[in-house]
Request: fold
Amino acid sequence: MNEAVGRGTVLAGRYRVVQPVASDLVGSSAWQATDQILDRPVRVRVLESGAVAPALDAARRAALVTDPRLVRVLDVGTHEGVGYVVTEQVSGPSLAELVARGPLGADQARAIVGEAASALEVARRRGVHHLALRPSALHVSPDGRVMLSGLALDAALRGEPSGDARATTRADTVGLVRLLYTALTGRWPADPRQPWPTGDGPAQAPVHEGSPVPPVDLVPSVPADLDTLCAVTLGPYEDGPHSPGELVRELEPWGELQPVPASAPPTVVAPPLVEEPVFVDHDSQDTAPVRVQRQSARTAFDELQAPGANLPGTPPPAAPTRTSAFGAATAGAAAGAAAGAVAGAEAGGYVAPPAPPAPLPGAGAGATTPMPPVGATAPMPPATFGAAPPSPYGQPQPPTGYGPPPAAYGQAPAGYGQAPPAAYGPVPPGAPQGALHQSAPASFGPPNGYQGHVAQGPVEEPLDFDGFAVEDVPAAPTRRRFDPTALVLGIVAVVVVIGVIIAFKSLFSSFDPQKPSTDDAASAPEASASAPAQAAPPSAEPSQPAAPPAGGVPTIATAITIDPSDEDGEHEEDAAKAYDGDPSTFWYTQTYKRDDFAGFKDGVGYAITLTAPAHVKTVTLHSNSTGGHVEVRATDATAPTTGPVLASGAFGPETVLTLDPATDTQSIVLWVTQLPTAPDGGFRLELTEISLS
Reply:
């Protein structure tokens, strides 16, 4: 253990080292620490020996890869000559701890390794590889999240050679399959070329003829597809997936990852429950906070009483009294009551309530008209000749708080039984029964100053007694206001349809072969007249050599880019700009720090497909870059490096490559083995135009 870093050491004035944790990486120690600025736990790896400088550089490159499944690198530095790397806290058991209790289920193993493969595919696209995969580097957090630690750092500290992009990608893929094998069987199929100290980790898997035995030989319940994947990938031949992305496609789909605790919780037998008496604190009810009854707009409207409903203690609404054009008793009584009420109201005195209702014909003594339900309209009984109309009132209640009470209930005040006022006029002949206004008695209001309970009848507006009519006059029909919206919308729709028709006619008129334009018609006679004149001189001269054979000038039909490390190529969307005839547009590669593609790949290609087989002699390249090296091969995109090299050279503003020998082909591949220098100083190819002859 290094003496420069120990308990209580503060790194970079921020990270206080707390206590050591287990580590299987030789040449380093791991510590649990605290970020004193953000007040959060972190993990510190102190690099004590080995390739410290390359490891610190690898940690910086790993910090640029952002994925929730990769343990984040928070800080990289040195303390008193000792390098350290600060990462986020790793929580949850590792794969080695999980399989110590037994192999995982196929679904869990598929999900864990699938998530790890997805994370490494993200890192691969950024040019970063792990190269040190083992069961102790893969964790499952308590919330069911896969966490992969040691990206690029662990392999760099051990001094593992990086190799080219294809080899490193294959190494990570095989390492992921080894983790899948361990999850399914609980055994670690170690790589003889990269031995890792197992310690308390899983036991070594049995080997048969130099390869681990298939997982199904150890756990018969392993699914056939996972067994085949492990056996083929870990076999003697380089079969199976070659990138983490291909492994993801082999494993998907997988279900949701179930959180797994680090250790099984102990079984605790709970004692029997004993019911205890519950004491109710009644004093707290008096001191409890006041609860405000909240009410929404919907509940407020629901609680409103229906129209016509009576308030508590209010008499039922007065039903309109039917009057008849026949019978002095009915007409006279109604008219007298109206006149008396009007006179009393004008005088400001007391108006007695109406007399008790008369029984219906044929009813017994004391029988009255039944009361209508609250809020409903009282039914209108048919007119009875010679009898007073029924009333819904029972025994009237005298008003309170105003004036002296009447002498005796049931006595009609002055005006009852008298003839109707002259303003009413005679009933016109032929008028139907009940032609008098039926709302007149119900519209009588209380006298001025009346403070008692008033019946809430269905009266909507006061009645104008001066213009009281004998018969109902139908209201004048309401004149509907003209709404021009429909007319305006119709006119707009017609205009739009006409405009669309005219536009289509104008668009397709130029494609009509039956209507040549005026310029074409005028130029046709001139062309026909000049044709004999142009054809006459060659007749006197010797015949020219024959035209080239069928096929003509090579014409590019399509082109695609080839990237050995990525199926998507390099800027595939701009491939057609290299032969579009516009020198201002170009196809370009990625920018690298070195002309050998920074060791990520052997080269990139540009595959050209002609419209038809043709005889190709030269290939002319126009480029914004200078230098580098390119080869012309007579092959296609499926095998870009297998065809013979017909020509080669460096890039420049105009590079003419003469094929030796000239060939008849329909496809040609430009294979770039060394990148030229771009105008900005980086190593990048910018190909503006390609022409073939």
Observations:
- Residues 359 and 367 are 5 Å apart (CA to CA).
- The first strand starts at residue 10 and ends at 11.
- Residues 264-315, 320-473, 513-550 have pLDDT under 50 and may be disordered.
- The first helix runs from residue 52 to 63.
